[in-house]
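Standup, Tuesday
Yesterday: got the pipeline producing structure tokens again.
Today: sanity-check two examples.
Blockers: none.

Example 1:
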Amino acid sequence: MSILERARAEIRAMQPYASARLEASGGTVMLNANELGWAPEGEFSEGCNRYPAPQPVELVQALAEVYQVRPEQLLVGRGSDEAIDLLLRAFCRAGEDAIIINPPTFGMYAIAARVQDAAVIEVPLAEDFTPDAAAILAAWTPAVKLVFVCGPNNPTGKRIDPAVIVQLAEGLRDKAMLVVDEAYMEFAAGSSSASALLERHDHVAVLRTLSKAWGLAGARIGCLLADATVIDLLRRIMAPYPLPVPSIRAAMEALSAGARPLARQRVGIVLQQRQRLVEALAGWPGVREILPSDANFIAVRLDDPGETYRRLLAAGIVVRDIRKYPRLGDALRISIGTPEENDRLLAVLRAWLGEEGQA
């Protein structure tokens, strides 16, 4: 059974909107899209009077090279959030279908589902904060169209054993699409991407983003890696021009051959600083536990997370309060900053927690 048979029939049958830019074929005098002939004044406005390509060829090719997939297996959009939303709208009928998530995990899966009026089935992570494949497969019903897993997981930071992904992929064949969120994969040294499964499993999709390791959170560039038929389906319901011209330029610069070594260097610094924070905080008064992390953050259990949060904020340092998540009622999530930012963090925590040693 093709995974498209699990998608909404009306989406499969619909005729997509044909944008002026998509219909254009060559030409230098563009009079087909009702644009203004002049660009605004300003350093970053060049070309902004013209609509961008719906899926810029050079950007798609560059991303396909980075993620080691074919261009037709890649959809680029406004962060991973857009891909999540598109999947929900394409596969879940309002009031009838459902998704499976593994709390504590990224909140947008459930939000996108509820906006679509799809049910959310929660299968909690195991005690070590990894997905329980057997429990997920046992929770499946014919209403479930999408199963989301996140690895390394947000907000806990734990990677997923590739064998678990394979087990889920095999168990969900002809049943549901498995969506693996790999937003933090670049920080999980030695991990392999679930995109390696795409050639054999048309029901596996992978979320990637330039917001984390590539430093482009403000540009909002994310990708869905999936079977070409799934990419084609989602393009039917995607906005005609999802990516702003400045964001495309920023992504192309970051992905250029000259810039890639800098990205790798900065990931290395993050890994060193992550270890530094773990070693510095371990055993401090008031620190109960530092959860193992393969991401660019650590989740820290504290005796008084509320007061710790307030003291950091008073010093101008903002961390994430994750006490609302299941089993994390005593935790804060701390992103790994620059060495200088981490110096400030440790100085404030040392003063508050009474640690006398040096970081």
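Example 2:
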Amino acid sequence: MCYVKLGAKSLDTSGRGIPFKFYTAYYLSFYSRRRAKTLRDLLEGIKAADKNTLFHHLFHTIRSKHLIPPKYTNDFAHWVGEEVGDEELAAALSDISGAEPATIEDIRREIVEILEPHADDRAGRSEFVFVAMEPVVVETNYVANTLGEFLDMLEVVPGESIVYHFVTRRVLDGTGRNDFSTWLEKNFGLAEVAESLSRIDPLMYNSEEALRGAILKTLRRWLL
């Protein structure tokens, strides 16, 4: 039986015997028929778009493996800033939070609240094209039974797996919490560790590896 030191107490790293099974997801993207020429069109498109389309435009930056951090955190902010030229509105859209417990519908409401007072006939230099998306979930061979195995696997699982468990399941499927925090609290009773992890906002990271690094840094601070 293995233990780690957590504050003033020792913790059984095998927990309650609930394994963590890693999955990964790939996202098939395709152009939809919906276009936006003006800010008003963009607002109406955001109101009408399905949740997968919104998820693509908000979170695909994390999956794009950027070498240089983008100026804006999502496609809506980028279009408003670069094509319409309203940098103040773009900055407000770029500040949208993707932190827990936000679901895709929570984020939609926040975008609409920000955009609606400014949704006029100002046009972009080019149209905004709404891109539809369909996630394809794939099982991996990674299964963690202990905290040590979990930390080791977080370093080597595909970046898409990190995004799936930390972002996709919560935001798109509406689970309310990332899978890592749920497992840490349910299996080990690590409520404080889970809460610390839950405070990470994935929209603040421009790549899978940056998000992975933030997760590992948080866990190591508590567990090692």
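Quick observation on example 2: Residues 18-224 form one domain. Residues 154 and 216 are 7 Å apart (CA to CA).
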